[in-house]
Amino acid sequence: MRKIALIIFCLFCIPSVSFAEDDCPLKGKWYSNEKATLEQMDKYGNLTEKQRKLLSNKFFGKLTIEYSCTEATIYYNDTVKTEKYKITKRNGNTLEVELSSTKEQITLAGDCYLISLEPLTFSEVFCKAK
Length: 130
Hints:
- This protein is 33% helix and 43% strand.
- The protein contains three helices and eight strands, in the order H-E-H-H-E-E-E-E-E-E-E.
- The chain has helices at 2-23, 34-44, 49-58; strands spanning 28-32, 63-67, 71-76, 79-91, 94-99, 102-109, 112-117, 122-128.
- The N and C termini lie far apart (41 Å).
C-alpha cells in the first residue's frame, strides 16, 4: 500500500515540477553569443559595412543576464544592474517580456534565445550557461 501511495504521489509531483519550470522559462544565467549573433546580423541585418564593423567589434558577446522568476541581473563589463521583469504574453516559444517599462520579444530556441533588436532587423542570441 505504501508503494502505491508513493507512486501516486510521484505521478502528481512530476507534472507540477515541469509546470513550475515552464512558468519561469528564462530562469538561469544566459550569455550573449557573439558568433551566433554575428551570423544573425550577416543573414538578416540591413546594415552598411561601417555599421557592421562598429557593431561586431564592440557589443556582442559581452553581456550576461541572470534571471530569477521575477528579476534580471544584467552584467556588462564592470556594471551590474538588477531589474524586475515579467512575462506579459506567451505564444509557443515566443515571449513578450516587460523589463523597465520596455517590452522585448524573446524567442526560445533550445538552449538559446533570440532577442529582437528592432531597428537593426536582426536578433542578438543568448545561450544558457551549462
